[in-house]
């Protein structure tokens, strides 16, 4: 398994298991992988409730009554990577009776300070039923994007936490009460992002902690 496939599996697993309720694995093929398979993971049932609208449209689609379901991947370079195609293929295979409109409009090197501007043309007019989102940058503009999604669309929202970038993150503080923006990475992943997901009724895919458990 190449590092890109490893990363793809970790990012895809959050949505796949939330959507299906099943344990997900990396699905590597060919020669024996250089890394162990991604372990099974069962999401909190309460998180799946944040997908109720989109999943109902998908699950109740029939050959006679095909619901259109619009799915948008948005963010920056991490969201541009090939893992999103794994999720798109999963949706098309699992819900063949739904008329799926799936696009990836992520823009590399666009942190939230820039993405808040491009979202005016890329995100809200698309009117997604499901938004899968990850971005770095200003927490203020991050929240502005999510707030406007709530104000202007009916989308179910999945927010992904961040990947690991340093060894010292294994020992980072995880208690939100003990964190402030001075501990930026830990605060974002254990305070701001969970708080934002709760505030706006979004699902959180905690990729950050799953990477820790795997590594």
CATH superfamily: SGNH hydrolase
Low-confidence stretches: 1-11, 17-29
Instruction: Report the principal-axis shape.
Output: globular
How many domains make up the 3D coordinates? 1
* DSSP summary, beta strand count: 5
Please give the alpha-carbon distance between the first and last residues.
15 Å
Which secondary structure elements does this structure contain, and how are they paired or packed?
Layout: H1 3-20, H2 45-48, H3 52-59, E1 68-75, H4 77-80, H5 83-94, E2 99-104, H6 112-122, E3 130-134, H7 139-152, E4 156-160, H8 184-199, E5 203-205, H9 207-214
Please, could you describe this protein's structure?
The chain has helices spanning 3-20, 45-48, 52-59, 77-80, 83-94, 112-122, 139-152, 184-199, 207-214, and strands at 68-75, 99-104, 130-134, 156-160, 203-205. The protein is α/β, with parallel strands linked by helices and 215 residues long. It has one domain (44-214): Rossmann fold (3-Layer(aba) Sandwich), CATH 3.40.50. The protein is globular and about 55 Å long.
Features of this protein?
single chain; 215 residues; alpha/beta; Rossmann fold; five-stranded parallel sheet; 9 helices; 5 strands; 44% helix; globular; disordered N terminus
């Amino acid at each position: 398994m190449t590092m890109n496939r490893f990363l793809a599996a970790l990012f895809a697993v959050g949505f796949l298991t939330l959507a299906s309720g099943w344990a997900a694995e990396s699905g590597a093929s060919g020669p024996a992988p250089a890394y162990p398979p991604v372990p099974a993971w069962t999401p909190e049932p309460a998180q799946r409730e944040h997908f109720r609208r989109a999943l109902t449209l998908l699950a109740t689609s029939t050959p006679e009554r095909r619901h259109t379901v619009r799915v948008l991947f948005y963010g920056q370079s991490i969201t541009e990577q090939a893992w999103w195609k794994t999720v798109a293929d999963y949706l098309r295979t699992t819900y063949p009776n739904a008329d799926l409109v799936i696009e990836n409009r992520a823009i590399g090197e666009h942190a939230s300070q820039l993405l808040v501007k491009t979202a005016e043309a890329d995100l809200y007019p698309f009117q997604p039923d499901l938004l899968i989102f990850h971005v770095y940058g200003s927490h203020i503009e991050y929240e502005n994007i999510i707030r406007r999604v709530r104000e202007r669309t009916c989308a179910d929202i999945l927010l992904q936490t961040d990947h690991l970038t340093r060894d010292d993150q294994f020992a980072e503080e995880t208690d939100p009460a003990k964190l402030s923006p001075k501990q930026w990475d830990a605060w974002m992943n254990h305070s701001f992002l969970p708080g934002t997901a709760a505030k706006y009724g979004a699902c959180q895919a905690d990729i950050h902690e799953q990477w820790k458990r795997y590594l």
